[in-house]
Write a structure and sequence with these properties.
The structure is a single chain. The chain is built from 8 helices and 2 strands, in the order H-H-E-H-H-H-E-H-H-H. By secondary structure, it is mostly helical. The chain has a single domain, classed as Up-down Bundle (Four Helix Bundle (Hemerythrin (Met), subunit A)). It has a two-stranded antiparallel ribbon with strand order 1-2. Helix 2 packs parallel to helix 5, helix 6 runs antiparallel to helix 7 and helix 7 packs across helix 8. The longest helix has 29 residues.
């Protein structure tokens, strides 16, 4: 079956991307993805990384969740929202999404050349404990989890909610794996005190004393 370009474009730009107010979330995430991709060119040299096979524990749920969260999955399945939050609540959720994504950029700026999309040790890697890293050890994951959950609640389809939960689980798994990697690579003397002092993902969460 042959599809005209206009038909293909209509399919790609359909689903909740053309439904107000959830269209706003598509615009927010598109802007963030473009800026994040451009920023990926500014990173230091990698000395060591977790292998792709070992990283499947967080990659699989994250990718699966992203597929479920996209508007096209709901369109193919013919899903309808489980609820309609209304403009006021949707704008509030959009604000939370935007705040979470701003947190990711704040953290990335503080990381500078130590940032990487994978779990790696960069050249001259050291513990960063300023800016957002005073609040949580993994502020990028915190921001993404918050933004994803807010988006899932706003879109309100079953697949979007499940996708948001899978992404949150995948990022939590990645944070746990990164903890072990940094303890080994940076040393317990360097990373251990920071780990005991600052929560992993939830700001102001009381830490258990050793």
């Amino acid at each position: 079956m042959y599809y005209q370009p206009s038909q293909l474009f209509a399919f790609v730009w359909s689903g909740w991307t053309t439904t107000w107010p959830t269209k706003l979330f598509a615009l927010i995430w598109t802007a963030w993805l473009i800026s994040w991709a451009v920023g990926s060119f500014f990173s230091g040299r990698t000395e060591k990384r977790v292998t792709t096979w070992d990283s499947r524990g967080y990659r699989v749920p994250t990718v699966a969740g992203a597929v479920l969260l996209t508007p096209w999955t709901a369109q193919v399945l013919g899903e309808q929202p489980l609820w309609h939050a209304g403009n006021g609540v949707s704008y509030l959720l959009a604000g939370l999404t935007w705040a979470g994504l701003l947190l990711t950029w704040w953290a990335r700026i503080y990381l500078g050349r130590f940032w990487s999309s994978a779990i790696t040790r960069k050249e001259d890697h050291r513990v960063i404990d300023t800016g957002p890293y005073r609040l949580v050890r993994h502020p990028i994951y915190t921001g993404l989890i918050g933004a994803t959950l807010a988006t899932g609640v706003a879109v309100a389809t079953t697949t979007a909610l499940l996708g948001a939960l899978l992404i949150a689980f995948g990022l939590w798994q990645k944070a746990r794996m990164e903890e072990g990697f940094l303890m080994t690579e940076l040393g317990a003397d360097a990373y251990g005190p920071y780990r005991r002092r600052v929560p992993m993902l939830v700001p102001f969460l009381p830490q258990r004393r050793p």
